Amino acid sequence: MTCPRERPAISRRAFVGGALAVAYGPRMAEGQPAGKLAAIGFVSERVLPPRYLDALREGLAERGWIEGRGFRIEPRSAEGDLERLSGLVVELIGLGVTLIVTGIGTPVALAAKRATAKIPIVFVTGGDPVDFGIVPSAAKPGGNITGYGGGSSLIQKRIALVQETSPRVKRMAFLVNLTNPIHPRILRAAVSAGAPLGITLEEIGVFEAAEFGDAFKRIAAKRLDALFVPGDAMFSHHRARLVALAGAARLPAMYGDRLFPDAGGLMSLSVDLVELCRRAAGHVDKILRGTRAGDLPVEEADRFELVINLTAAQTLGLTIPAALRQRAETVS
Question: Where, residue-wise, is CATH 3.40.50.2300 in the chain?
Fold first, then answer.
């Protein structure tokens, strides 16, 4: 697996997009009154680094859209609290947004889908949008929603990578946010994926971040020897705490996105969600020019990120195999 490194702040793609915008002028959404900007609501489950929203802007610039002249973005974040999502979407609807982009997970896409059957929605998620109930079909999503998604095949690869890094692992803790509606399904998939590898996974559930300490006491009491942390807004929001607890417990840990190894966690394998945000501009562009969201097929991720923190590995006494290092982006 070749994992792309993060682009520089000003990429060739952004330069070309800017040149196209100058050449062709700002685009206006079909049916928009002259002088009125298309309002794009961007709602996320957690506070995201700027590169995610910048990627969407870059993708729109490539298609001739100029922020402040052809469109504006109304960003909202639930800051790790999934219960806030519905209210944030309703707030955007009240502002009269032209369409809504959700990032970067399944719960926020489901919240937007429940909130409106009229305003177009473009979702970005690392999960399987059909399996998780966002759309009935990738080819024909129907209704007012479409987007970009990943799949469940990464689950077994994540477990296998932990085993490759630490061959002694046999019993893995699976951290579950008990307020996240998709975690039970991910846990079932993980249990099935671990069986052929000879690894059992045990649920360690929490309702809130204040329970993390107790969760790691349960992990120690069960003598579990590794940790699987799936993608989740609350986990990501409190990633520094989780990384510290995993390190103190000397647990090899696999995380749901690269924000964790960037914060000192051992490793992550995930869809390149920054790239998906850039690609999401393609559907946004088509919708603003008059295409129905439900007529646009859901597109799959084709780029993935394997990130390994070498300092964390050294602290745990792990030697990362040379072949694995060649496939990964390493940080320290």
Answer: 12-150+272-304, 154-270+306-331
